[in-house]
Amino acid sequence: MDTNRILADLRAERDRIDRAIAALEAVNSSGRLRAGRPARAAATRSRMSAAARRKLSRLLKQRWAQGKMRPGAKPKAAQVSKPAQRMSRAARKKIAAAQRARWAKVRSQPA
Q1: How far apart are CA 3 and CA 22, in angstroms?
Q2: Phi, psi of 57 (to 5 degrees)
């Protein structure tokens, strides 16, 4: 085998690989390949149509007029949370006595 010929073939292969890498980097400006996403997807943006912008503008103006977007607007009655229910002293004593009895039973059993 001629080592000079093998070296020449390897250098030619390296040049082809370098050109392929350069071409891929040119397509993807960040220099990295993106998995699962075509290269054109990053360049295109979805834009809102003029009709959609008008509709959104009209709806927002309606909300402002109703006072729903004003700072300090009062929340609806359904959004106000209920106060926490408190346990009575008698119920707390009953639960504590039951828990003490459970622990006494556990302690009395042999290990």
Answers
A1: 28
A2: -60, -45
